[in-house]
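Problem: given the chain below (269 residues), write out its structure.
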Amino acid sequence: MSENKIINLMTNGSEKSLIIAEELKHKFEALGYTANYDIDENAVLNICVGGDGTFLRAVHKTGFSSTPYVGINTGTLGFFQEISVLEIDKFIKNFVAGDYDMEKLDLLEGRVYSREHKEYFHNALNEFVIRSEDTSIIHLDVFIDDNHLQTFAGDALLVSTPSGSTAYNYSAGGAVLYRSLKGYQLTPLAPINSKAYRSLLNPLVLPSDSVLTLKRRPEDKAGTLVINDGLNVLCDNFDSIKIKTSDKWINKLQFNNNWYWLNIKDKFI
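Solution.
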């Protein structure tokens, strides 16, 4: 434990979340911690109060920090938010005692290339989505480890991590991948399968050491959106994106080893 004993608090700004964050602040400060709403890189814990969107924004805001994260759920859906508001005292007690496991969540690394050969680097915890800015059909050449797989035509291609497989990917018909699996998933959104286009209709699971390249076809004139964990990045001169499992990861505290399957049952069944 760091002598600084600093806690970073991040919320979604709702009244309920702000009340819970203040409760956490007072309880941790009573135990000798410094809890604040500023990001301190020397913190021992990042607490995200809200829903999964709050967790994702916190991870991006902190730059995918090595400081572990934990989620306090005040929303309706919480795949990252393990702790309920009724379990705060138990959570604090277990955290102080070191009674928890550390879960490593893999990230995706995306390198976007423009037609002017400029390179832009992004990380994603859940997914990348590549689609046209004006929602027209997008045409993408798909390469796996430099092997041409298909020329895709459809609404979009979605690439998700195992931890992100229960989010947009699941809604799009993708498979649920357990978080510790080493790999990632390519899921087509409204693919066209006709005499003109022969797009894959089903998701494809790739090993973590494979590099996926999506290259825009020259006939597409609209701008391209690269959506990173729900954050839109417009690429007017998009040429291609190379995606692979990142060398980085985030650490998430886990207090109940059965929580993942309990959550799957609670949310989906």
